[in-house]
Amino acid sequence: MVDLARVQKELQECNRDVGVSGISVTLKGDSLTHLIGTIPGPLGTPYEGGSFKIDITLTGSGPYVWGKYGKGSTVIVNIST
């Protein structure tokens, strides 16, 4: 079973540090078990300026088993050439 209090705490911590890491996580809908992660492209790479989204589903098998990740949709904001 997913520890919803832990998920909520981790979401708050992750989004508090978004200014430093550039990584954010938001709910997809109302469920704490379905999330969308947004990761910036690394500096100094062709992906710099891009914004990459990951669909995350928490399965409740954790903490030692990964959740399910998939349906990665990529939104390219600005790619330097």
From TrEMBL:
Residues of the UBC core domain: 2-81
Q: Which Gene3D superfamilies match?
A: Ubiquitin Conjugating Enzyme
Q: Which SUPFAM superfamilies match?
A: UBC-like
Q: Which PROSITE patterns match?
A: UBC_2
Q: What is this protein called?
A: Ubiquitin-conjugating enzyme E2 27
Q: Which organism is it from?
A: Nicotiana tabacum
